Amino acid sequence: xxxxxxxxxxxxxxxxxxxxxxxxxxxxxxxxxxxxxxxxxxxxxxxxxxxxxxxxxxxxxxxxxxxxxxxxxxxxxxxxxxxxxxxxxxxxxxxxxxxxxxxxx
Amino acid sequence: xxxxxxxxxxxxxxxxxxxxxxxxxxxxxxxxxxxxxxxxxxxxxxxxxxxxxxxxxxxxxxxxxxxxxxxxxxxxxxxxxxxxxxxxxxxxxxxxxxxxxxxxxxxxxxxxxxxxxxxxxxxxxxxxxxxxxxxxxxxxxxxxxxxxxxxxxxxxxxxxxxxxxxxxxxxxxxxxxxxxxxxxxxxxxxxxxxxxxxxxxxxxxxxxxxxxxxxx
Lengths: 105, 216
Hints:
The structure holds 2 protein chains of 2 kinds.
Chain A: H1 2-25, H2 32-39, H3 42-55, E1 56-57, E2 60-61, H4 65-78, H5 83-104
Chain B: H1 3-32, H2 37-46, H3 50-61, H4 66-76, H5 80-87, H6 95-102, H7 107-113, H8 122-146, H9 161-173, H10 177-193, H11 201-206
Helix pairs in contact in B: 1-2, 1-3, 1-7, 1-8, 2-8, 3-4, 7-8, 7-9
């Protein structure tokens, strides 16, 4: 039961966050400065998602097997690999390193 | 339907394929956290957000309460506030219609539909989100079916998929030199905040790096 409450609440909150901007600001032109800020919003959001997902372990910053896997995928993506190839490289390298470390330890 | 919808679908296919693996790992995690198959499926159907679903589910898995789980999902998804504000001026129609169109925003479709001048191609965004929704559900179904038999998913490196997904999107953005500086500032802000703020806050605050655009 509590899981159902949690699921519906998560859906409600996400819906409100996605709806806020379109309701409050939609349908009109905004200043050029505002547009420049908007145009620059994706890079820092995505960069922050990448570094926190690859390095943060709760509130600690940790370089782990996943960090290495994501970096390896990053090199492949930078050289033109498709996102699905990148994802497979990341998972394979991470899984391989964990296997090695568990054998070594 | 405008041609940009079809272009959006084509652009979305690789992300949809990656999203399948990502939602599969969500299905597995959800079952291991004590979700029923129906609960895992419904969560993907009505939340449709990797970061929010993972944030809430991992708190349930660690024995946290409903409030903590919803708060974590809210923070993890708080970037949809600035993303929705950015998308808003590109949406026609009354407030309800705009709010409904705003629900189609997911990270990949939003980033790919941004023209970089403050405007968005909304039909391309709808097109990119569509295949991602289909595979998000399909992956969850597969993951939730095999979930309880799989054991520790860390062995398969599934946790490396999520950051790689966003890295692919980021690299598309970094073709623009100005974007590189803003991205570096955003990453630095996020890393500085990780030790001192709850999950999700570093990413939200990192978006303020875009305020560099106010100069000139």
